[in-house]
Amino acid sequence: MSRPPLPSSSAFTRVWDSAGMLLVLAGLFLLCSVGVDNFLTATNLRGLALAVSTIGMVACTMMLCLAAGDFDLSVGSVVAFAGVLGATVMNATGSVLAGTAAALASGALIGFVNGVFVARLGINALITTLASMQIVRGLGFIVSDGRAVGIRTDGFFALGNTAWLGVPVPVWLTVTCFVVFGVLLNLTIFGRSALAIGGNREAAHLAGVPVVRVKVVIFTLQGVVAAFAGLVLAARMTSGQPNTSLGFELEVISACVLGGVSLSGGVARLGAVVAGVLIMGLVQNAMNLLNIPPFYQYVARGCILLGAVMLDRLKHRN
Amino acid sequence: MSAPGHALGFDGLAMEFPGVRALDGVSFGVRGGSVHALLGENGAGKSTLLKILSGAYLPTAGTLCLEGDKKIFRSTAAAIAAGVAVIYQELHLVPEMTVAENLLLGRYPRRGAFLDRAALRTEAGRLLQLVGEDISPDARLGRLPLAQRQMVEIAKALGRGARVVAFDEPTSSLSEKETRRLFAIIRDLRVRGHAILYVTHRLDEVFELCDAATVLRDGRHVVTHDALAGVTRDTLVRSMVGRELTDIYNYRPRAHAPGGLEVRGLAGPGLREPVSFSVARGEITGFFGLVGAGRTELMRLLCGAVLPTAGEVRVHGRPVQGGSPRTAIRDGIVFCPEDRKKEGIISVRSVTENINLSARRKHLRAGLFLDPGWERTNATAQIARLGVRTASPATLIGLLSGGNQQKAILARWLSEPVRVVVLDEPTRGIDIGAKSEIYALIQALAAAGTSVVIVSSELPEVLGIADRVFVMREGVIAAEFTRAAASPEAVLHAALPATIAN
Ligand SMILES: Nc1ncnc2c1ncn2[C@@H]1O[C@H](COP(=O)(O)OP(=O)(O)OP(=O)(O)O)[C@@H](O)[C@H]1O
Ligand SMILES: [Mg+2]
Questions:
Q1: Closest alpha carbon to B103 in B71, B148, B63
Q2: What's the CA gap between A219 and A61, in Å, rounded?
Q3: B363-391: average pLDDT
Q4: Is B195's pLDDT higher than 80?
């Protein structure tokens, strides 16, 4: 069929579509560099990167989870629980390996159970992970008896407190996560399946996508990565703390939403999620440097989230 | 071009989306008390015109004209207030609420601060009488069959005082009987002086129902016939497609080989008795029946979407593991579902993504990584082969016109040589030019040895394309015809419930 050629969409929309949040990030960075004293120093930037490293890791799997149309509210509890469990096992056995393995395995198990409830039994992800969030938080308190567990195995601290090429190890680990999950999302059939499921579960099912398996794997990965992030955090703090990372799940989801991930599923880009994570960290950091009291920081963070979502809507209006 | 006598006019209407000029200076008028057909190929701009009429889109240029007054609707509320109602194919009703609640949505009768239930029921009853439909106002909307939901939507529009009513492919999911009812209601609206705009791909309906017709092509106005006397089907097709289309089926006999699809004693929900049949390699079979005859249920069992309670399905002699579309696809049966929006497209993903969804599994690198080269070439090739009209392969499929979405979903299944392909209403919402291309494609598939099963509610389509016709009625295969024996009367007779047929 012969058709008249169609005009191509404007260059601006295309750039904005693919790199909008990166532009916002670059703008904010410039603004802070000029307007905030002590922002553009190596120490401060290292601190900033370290501060977002935990959120960054978990945002990778949260992005997959949201892409497939689900939520996971249990990640904050898993971070705390994995730290506590890892610390306890290390102290009991004296082995870093045993502690690490125990923490990761517990994260995998929690994620797997979440996945089975959501994908196999069809229970709403919000409800399932709301429950596991509380259960796992409780387990963390039980294992530690409600107190911080100081770690006595020095070798473990390397994970949190050393640097390579001047960049702290946790930051390297976060970058590795970004790369691995970027590849997973964009270059593998697994990533495409996740997006297809989030976009239209029934259509994906009929097209032969193994819906249940993909979802269970995503939740399991989410558990493992959250547990790993918990271990790194424990190494940085030299102890496992049962009440760390309260409200962490919402920060992670906020970063993903800032990064343009659709809460109704089917839409996710890793580059934008990285930008979302960095924007959150940047704003936090700048507010600290400007000595804005913490109470106001909450208000500011909420406003930024709303602003970003508004911006996104405006973009889709035309 | 809209003369004073017109109840509704369009004047130089233009609409541009990024990369697409959906409407380009369209002008015509619709008389009050007439049914005006709006025709054109997929993507010609019909639905876009209706969306402008409903206030959902703001046109880039041009105006509407209502009873002589120039108008532009900036919101759907403005259009409703001006007495315009558009009945979309996807109905805008709330399935969880009752019929009465839906009918009066947004303008509930109140007594003080409270909902006046009694008034709600009486008013709803009055509106339902307007469409002469026997529906309880207290029924939960989601429980009603689609046709009745459509009637509720029409009643809702009339209740809001609509003088102009536009329909977008209203009959595409209705049974023959339901279509009759709808036509009766539309004729009634015409008598009462409403101006009616009617979008369809079924030309028979134009001659049966409509008084005038306008054809769009590629967003431009081609012709308006103010009366249909002297207008033939061929005239309309030529102005729609821009060329002559003689035999759209272009049927050619093919050689068949045994051992394609064999179904023995298949039983499950929706089937009254176990079903057995077979389709040879290279054979095209058509499944005809009235809506609700169990055809879709049978196909869903066949393709693994529903677990059968008994029976066996074999492809090329090997059993197919049922109960999951994934295993059915692996074992050689692919299925193109009838409800495109719900079960076919992934609207937030690109056309490429939607086309490659199923076949890419066979084109991975190292069993894990996508092959970007294949992804691109396959999508481009399929888009060209089926004539999918899209600004680019990267366009979100949800932005395509209905018929073009359907073509893209078909492309999903035609990227790979398959053994058995089951197509449930494959040409629903597809224009006549594209239809003939799809028929050619189906025949090419069969010629290459694929066993084809087509479910269709359009009798001419089944008779035109199939080598053999199965008729389903009330959950069983009621009759089987060879191509030579399949006359329209015989097939239709077999499809009607026994009580009516005798
Ligand atoms: N929101 C949108 N954004 C971008 N393009 C759009 C949008 N809506 C429609 N289009 C494009 O405008 C053109 C006209 O679409 P429209 O839905 O009006 O066609 P149609 O005549 O109703 O076709 P069909 O018979 O297939 O339903 C198509 O090319 C479609 O892709
Ligand atoms: Mg349309």
A1: B148
A2: 8
A3: 90
A4: yes
**CA dihedral for A78, A83, A84, A85, sign (positive or negative):** positive
Closest residue (by CA) to atom 27 of ligand 1?
A: B402
Ligand 1, atom 17: closest residue by C-alpha: B401
Reported as a single tens digit per residue, the pLDDT across B478-492 is: 999 999 999 988 998
Kindly list the structural domains of chain B, giving each domain's residue range(s) and its CATH number in brackets, ordered by start.
6-241 (3.40.50.300), 257-501 (3.40.50.300)
Closest chain A residue by Cα to residue B299? A206
Least confident of A271-285, B135-149, B482-496: B135-149
Give the residue from B220, B324, B349 with the most A CB atoms within 10 Å of its CB, the best one to mutate.
Answer: B349
Of A1, A200, A210, which is closest to B346 when you measure between CB atoms? A200
Give whole-number Cα distances, B417 to B65, B184, B278, B315, B370, in Å. 52, 46, 20, 14, 20
Tell me the three state secondary structure of residue A122. coil
Best of B17, B88, B397, B430 for a ligand 1 pocket test (most atoms within 8 Å of beta carbon): B17
Q: Measured in Å, how far apart are chain A's first and last C-alpha atoms?
A: 29
> If you measure CA to CA, which chain A residue comes closest to B358?
A207
- Beta carbons of B353 and A192 less than 8 Å apart: yes
Q: Token pair 């271990």 is at which residue?
A: A231
Say what the pLDDT of residue A5 is. 36
Confidence at residue B293, expressed as pLDDT on a 0 to 100 scale: 84
Beta carbons of A7 and B19 less than 8 Å apart: yes
**What pLDDT, in 10s, does the model give residues B378-423?**
999 999 988 898 999 999 999 998 888 988 998 998 888 889 999 9
ipTM score for this prediction? 0.84
Neighbours of ion ligand 2 (CB under 5 A): B 47, 402
Q: Do the beta carbons of residue B280 and residue B483 sit within 8 Å?
A: no
